[in-house]
Specification:
- There is one protein chain.
- A 3-stranded antiparallel sheet has the order 1-3-2.
- Strand 2 and strand 3 form a beta hairpin.
- The protein is built from 7 helices and 3 strands, in the order H-H-H-H-E-H-H-E-E-H.
Length: about 150
């Protein structure tokens, strides 16, 4: 029931926005700012009710669980996380592997790996499927590292 009332309020607010825009277009706007504020309150209130209804349907362990937050890493910590992941994977990683390690988002992992590649810390190989594999020869097992360095 909450959800239905929430969507009704949100729709009423959208109609209010449309009405105020139409009044502005016609030049008959007397209390336009008030109308926009009321419309925004209806939309936001309605969406809050919808969110509340959806949240009430969740199991208690998910509903009451605190939001998971990662500790913020500085630039040095981010590089260490990438290098630790590369070392764990034998010196070869993909962006997805670094992101799956849990400390970085996919975008952060991609940016750091590209930056390390530009700095010469690793080389990039592209597979037939188009996946980028970042190779850190200094983190590979000794035999693999020598073979990778030979022409």
């Amino acid at each position: 029931m909450k959800s239905i009332i929430g969507w009704a309020l949100a729709c009423f607010g959208v109609i209010g926005f449309g009405s105020e825009i139409d009044n502005l277009r016609k030049g008959t706007a007397d209390h336009t700012v008030t109308g926009f504020i009321l419309a925004a309150l209806f939309v936001l209130g309605g969406l809050a009710l919808v969110r509340s209804a959806r949240r009430a349907k969740l199991p208690p362990e998910l509903r009451d669980a605190p939001a998971v937050s990662r500790p913020a890493l500085d630039a040095r910590g981010i590089e260490r996380a990438v290098l630790a992941c590369a070392k764990q994977n034998g010196g070869r990683v993909t962006i997805a592997e670094v992101a799956a390690d849990g400390q970085l988002s996919f975008t952060e992992a991609k940016e750091v790996l590209e930056e390390l590649s530009r700095a010469g810390a690793c080389t990039v190989d592209v597979t037939e499927n188009g996946a980028f594999i970042y190779e850190f020869s200094g983190l590979m097992p000794r035999e693999t590292a020598r073979a990778a360095l030979e022409p």
